[in-house]
C-alpha cells in the first residue's frame, strides 16, 4: 500500500469528526481533530437513529460496538394520525440488523472515547477563522492565534460549516424547514412497551415520535411548526418551562401518547435541539487540499433518519480514497462515490418535512397514506425499499482512480 496522504486536520469534534479521524488513522493517515468549543458538548443534542448502513460503515473501521452499546434496537416505525389511528408501518428490511436509537450526547461521547483509543487526539478551543494552501501543505488558522498544518484538511464542522464557506463563499446556506425540534427522556412513561418500534404521531399542530421500553422508561421528540426561524441559542433563551407549556398546548387536542408524555416530562430533562434545517445541493465538495464530509456537505433533516449514518459512510469512503489515491484524485473519487446517493436521500426527507410543516398536507396525508401504503407494498418490486439500508462498504477493496460524479441522483 502506497500512502499518498500522511497527515490530516479534521475540523469539528461532533459526531462525524471522531469517525473521520478514526477512518483516516486506519488508512494510515495521522489525523487530529480540532473542535471550536472549549470542551466536549456532552449535553447537546436530542435523539437519533443509526440505520443498518451506518452501523455497517462503523464496523468497517472498528467502531460499530459503540452504537450497539449505547443504542436501543428499533425494528421499524409506526405512523399514526392525531387520533391515534395507524396510518402505516415501515419495518427494517428482512436480513438486516435493527436500527439503533441513541441519544446524541451518549453517541458523541462514545465515539470520541473510541477514537482516542485508536490514537486520535482532539484539541478544544480551536475556532477556525481562515485557511491557507500552497503546493505542499494546508494550514488552519484559529481564533486564538494558533495554527496547524497538514497534507489535507477535512471539514466535518456540521451544517453551518465554516470550512464550506471558506472554500466557496457562494456555497448554499442551510434552509429552515419550518420546524423547531425538542426531545426528552422520560423515566416512567406509565405506558406499555412500543415493542422496539418508533411511533410517530402526526398531530394537529405538532408531530411527536416516541419509544417506550419494557421497563416503561422511554423518550420522545417533537417537531413544532414555527414560522420564523430561531437559532438554538434563541430557542434555549425562551426557557424549558415556557417551551413545555407551548408543546403541551400544541398537542392538547391530540388523542395520542404525546399529551401524557409531555405531562410526565421534567423541565430539567427537556432538550431544545433548535431549527430543523436542510442543505441544498452543494456544488463544491473540495478545493485544493480541503474536502467536506457529513452535514458540512450533505445535511439531511432528522426526518430521513439517515444524517449520522450518511456521515459515517462518507467518512469511510473518504478514508479509502485517500488511502489509495493522491489527494486530488481521491477527492474526485470520493465525490463520485457519494453525491448521487446522499442527494437522493435528502430529497426524500425534504418531502417529509413539507408534510409535517403544512396543516393542509396533514389532512391529505391522513386520508391518503393508508391507501398509498397498501398500493406501494403491492407495486414495489422485492428489495426496492432496501436501497437506503442495505449499503455495504468493502474497506479492503481498492478504489479506482476514475469514479464519475453524477449530480442529482434519481
Automatic annotation (TrEMBL):
Key word Oxidoreductase present: yes
SUPFAM superfamilies with a match to the protein in the record: FAD/NAD(P)-binding domain (SSF51905)
All residue ranges annotated as the FAD-binding domain in the record: 8-323
GO molecular function: FAD binding; monooxygenase activity
Key words, A-Z: Monooxygenase, Oxidoreductase
PANTHER family on file: MONOOXYGENASE, PUTATIVE (AFU_ORTHOLOGUE AFUA_6G14510)-RELATED
Protein name per its UniProtKB record: FlsP
Species per Swiss-Prot/TrEMBL record: Micromonospora rosaria
Lineage: Bacteria, Bacillati, Actinomycetota, Actinomycetes, Micromonosporales
Amino acid at each position: 500500500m502506497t500512502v499518498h496522504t500522511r497527515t490530516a486536520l479534521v475540523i469539528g469534534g461532533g459526531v462525524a469528526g471522531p469517525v473521520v479521524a478514526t477512518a483516516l488513522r486506519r488508512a494510515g493517515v495521522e489525523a487530529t481533530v480540532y473542535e471550536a468549543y472549549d470542551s466536549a458538548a456532552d449535553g447537546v443534542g436530542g435523539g437519533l437513529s443509526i440505520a443498518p448502513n451506518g452501523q455497517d460503515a462503523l464496523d468497517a473501521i472498528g467502531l460499530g460496538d459503540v452504537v450497539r452499546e449505547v443504542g436501543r434496537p428499533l425494528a421499524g416505525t409506526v405512523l399514526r394520525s392525531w387520533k391515534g389511528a395507524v396510518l402505516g408501518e415501515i419495518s427494517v428490511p428482512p436480513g438486516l440488523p435493527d436500527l439503533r436509537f441513541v441519544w446524541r450526547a451518549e453517541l458523541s461521547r462514545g465515539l470520541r472515547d473510541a477514537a482516542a483509543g485508536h490514537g486520535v487526539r482532539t484539541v478544544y478551543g480551536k475556532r477556525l477563522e481562515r485557511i491557507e494552501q500552497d503546493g505542499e501543505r494546508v494550514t488552519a488558522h484559529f481564533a486564538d492565534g494558533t495554527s496547524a498544518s497538514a497534507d489535507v484538511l477535512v471539514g466535518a464542522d456540521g451544517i453551518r460549516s465554516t470550512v464550506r464557506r471558506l472554500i466557496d463563499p457562494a456555497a448554499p446556506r442551510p434552509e429552515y424547514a419550518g420546524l423547531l425540534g425538542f426531545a426528552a427522556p422520560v423515566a416512567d412513561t406509565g405506558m406499555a412497551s412500543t415493542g422496539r418500534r418508533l411511533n410517530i404521531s402526526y398531530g394537529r399542530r405538532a408531530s411527536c415520535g416516541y419509544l417506550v421500553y419494557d421497563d416503561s422508561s422511554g423518550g420522545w421528540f417533537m417537531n413544532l411548526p414555527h414560522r420564523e426561524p430561531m437559532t438554538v441559542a434563541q430557542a434555549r433563551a425562551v426557557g424549558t418551562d415556557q417551551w413545555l407549556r407551548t408543546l403541551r398546548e400544541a398537542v392538547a387536542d391530540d388523542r395520542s401518547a404525546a399529551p401524557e408524555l409531555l405531562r410526565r416530562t421534567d423541565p430539567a430533562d427537556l432538550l431544545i435541539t433548535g431549527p430543523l434545517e436542510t442543505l441544498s445541493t452543494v456544488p463544491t465538495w473540495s478545493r485544493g487540499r480541503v474536502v467536506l464530509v457529513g452535514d458540512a456537505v450533505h445535511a439531511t433533516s432528522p426526518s430521513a433518519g439517515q444524517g449520522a449514518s450518511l456521515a459515517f459512510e462518507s467518512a469511510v469512503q473518504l478514508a479509502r480514497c485517500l488511502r489509495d489515491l493522491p489527494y486530488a484524485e481521491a477527492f474526485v473519487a470520493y465525490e463520485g462515490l457519494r453525491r448521487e446517493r446522499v442527494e437522493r436521500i435528502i430529497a426524500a426527507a425534504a418531502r417529509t418535512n413539507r408534510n409535517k410543516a403544512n396543516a393542509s398536507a396533514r389532512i391529505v396525508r391522513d386520508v391518503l397514506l393508508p391507501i398509498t401504503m397498501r398500493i406501494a407494498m403491492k407495486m414495489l418490486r422485492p428489495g426496492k425499499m432496501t436501497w437506503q439500508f442495505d449499503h455495504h462498504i468493502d474497506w479492503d477493496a481498492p478504489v479506482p482512480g476514475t469514479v464519475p460524479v453524477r449530480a442529482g441522483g434519481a
